[in-house]
Description:
Blueprint: H1 2-12, H2 15-23, H3 31-72
Amino acid sequence: MWLNNLKIAIIEKNTDSLQDLLNDIPKYEDTESREQALYLLREALELLHTLKDQTAADMVKIKKNIAFLKSTDTSSSSRLDITS
């Protein structure tokens, strides 16, 4: 059951489910289940690294967009400008 839930969490890219599953890793006695769990854990790790890198890239883009918006913002005066 745990292996199936881990597969689903990886496919759905559900980090909350991954965290819950990683906090409760069962001990498997048979080699096949152990190898499958190891493989899935590696996939989960790769997914987390990918999501982390994607988030970092998105944050850089957001910072650049904010800087651009600030640079194009016209400063408004609180005074009434009657000279223009």
